[in-house]
Amino acid sequence: MSYSLVDIDVAADLPSLSLGASETGLAVLVRRNGRPIAFWMEALPPETTLSPGDVAVRIAAHAAHHLLRERIRDDLVPAAEPLRTTSVTAAICTRDRPENVVRCLESLESAAAAASDHLPELEILVVDNAPSDARTRDLVASKPDVRYVCEPRAGLNVARNLALREATGELIAFVDDDVVVDRCWLSGLIQACAENPDAAAFTGLVLPYELETDAQIMFELHGGFRRGFDRIRYQGPQLPGNPLYPAGAGIFGAGANMAFRRDALFGLGGFDEALDTGAPLPGGGDLDMFYRVVRARFPLVYEPRYLAFHQHRRDLAGLRRQYWSWGLGLMAFVSKSYRTDLEERAKLRKLVVWWFRYQGKQLLQSLFGSHPLTWDMVAAEIWGGLRGLFGEYARSQARMARMPASMASESTSSTPAMGRSEPHPHLLTDDSLL
């Protein structure tokens, strides 16, 4: 299967759309004056052609509410003045994927150029995490406007902490190396910052970069990384209608496209280096940071204009491992939070119960063919969750403690040491979730 990706702005004339002989569907992003307002996927026979009228009918069905809301907002709510003095560092943490880094850098440079007339200069920082060769270093050496640093210790959160120490921007935006940012990515982030000057964290919309394989289409049909097109400000200890908030930290966004105020991250002690460690525990770091930001009573803002496109796993084996890592990372984060946050223990227990019930329903649906995922994808996530629940965070802490001191000393900074999450007041106990 292969879906054609289409980007339509309703402020211009609507196009006709045609599928090729090998394309079996459409995935459509709708904008209004550059702002993303809707996305849908539709299976269609190869070589189908949709007239502008057909396209208009579909846009009305999928985007009417958001179109109306954006028009009212434009008419009634004046845009906040961009904070021209707010400096931004974009950090790409990568390992042995220079071809991805090239594509990501080009998109960041385009976003910076698109915003150059009224926004601050963008600092771009590449963090090479435990590289096996010099390809990424040599690539960055050819780009004088991009900074390069090497973190010899393996682990995404380890690399994020080095980026945090090395960045000079007031905001640090983390983008995965398999991401391409939208031309309005930087302006969307800065606008969200202007509208929410007290926010400590920002997450953005993540849509597919391509839909060329069964695995990519399956993942996106199941929701992908999408969190919708509504601007959401999370703040405080409660969220009406969500009894698991903020323990269910997946609602806040995706680590592939997130930004923070550097001073807030320093105040929280940086990223927990026992999460998102690489192959043994490839997840949980973003959930943990989102949760700690909200628990510290900082606002966290989800902004769809802060848009990036992610290249999903192309093969089924890679997608299966991703779902396994999601279950593993979630439950490792839950186990860590249960040990350190006494006030939220009841919600964390409820989250575990809800999650396994939800996964069980998904498994039954997939076995009967009424779910976008195959049964083995759901089973992989359940298995990852079980492993994460039964001691993976403690095992990861032990692995990180055995990290050779000589290797750790290769990356130093004058800023405070980071790596362990700072507990909320009253926290820390050795009691097990189980």
Notes on the structure:
Helix 9 (316-340) runs antiparallel to helix 10. Strand 6 (88-94), helix 2 (98-114) and strand 7 (122-129) form a beta-alpha-beta unit. Helix content is 40%, strand content 20%. The protein folds into two domains: 3-76, no CATH class; 82-434, Spore Coat Polysaccharide Biosynthesis Protein SpsA, Chain A (Alpha-Beta Complex), CATH 3.90.550. It has helices at residues 52-76, 98-114, 135-141, 156-166, 185-195, 214-221, 262-267, 285-295, 316-340, 345-367, 375-401, 405-408; strands spanning 3-9, 17-18, 25-32, 35-43, 49-50, 88-94, 122-129, 146-151, 171-176, 179-181, 201-208, 232-234, 257-261, 300-310. The strands form three sheets. Strands 6, 7, 8, 9, 10, 11, 12, 13 and 14 form a nine-stranded mixed sheet that branches. The protein has a three-stranded mixed sheet with strand order 1-3-4, covered by helices on one side. Strands 2-5 form a two-stranded antiparallel sheet. The N and C termini lie far apart (43 Å). With 434 residues, it is α/β, with parallel strands linked by helices. Mean pLDDT is 91; it is low at 408-416 and 421-432.
